[in-house]
Amino acid sequence: MDLIYVTTFIIAWCSVHLVTGTQYMLYHEAALTWESSRDACLSKYRVLAKVDSEVSQKWVETLGPYSDRAFWIGLRRVDKSQEEFVWADETTPTYTNWAVNEPDLSRDKDCVVMRPGDFKWRTSYCEREEVYLCEDENYKYSSVVTEETKLKGIFMGLGVIAAILLACCLLLQLPCCRTSVTQKIAHIGFGMRNPDTNGLL
Asked: Left if phi > 0, otherwise alpha if psi is -120 to 50, otherwise beta: which for 45?
């Protein structure tokens, strides 16, 4: 029984660490203007999303089941006399995913939403209230891989493999699970089992 508890704990721990720290989060509890959305993201220690590559675009599109309306991203036109759009951090986009006939510069549509369904970009009035997409800049799912992300991926992978092997060992009732492994795990967090009383010391 102790082995079951430990296996469950390891699998749960790995699962939590694999799904947390995602780059993008869609907040649909309230519809806000573009500027209010930017401030709301900052209050959550995030930024209004910067979708700066096809890889990032694909990650955003995985939110499809949770999005039934357009949502703000961090792109807007600051100078109405210019056609240039910039991200909230004042950088110029190197990747875009505009819908047909977009961006629409004929009216004061200076901010950008990503529409549901095909996730194409279109301009909208900045004062319009929409839900919004925030980004955690410290955890990038991008084409740029650092030594830190490599190590994190390796350790997470090893954790999952270890959990799977342990589960298989338990299910198949291999001798290693019934002897040395069980005895070692019994000493970790569960106490030492008394063989005479079948209780914990």
From this structure: left
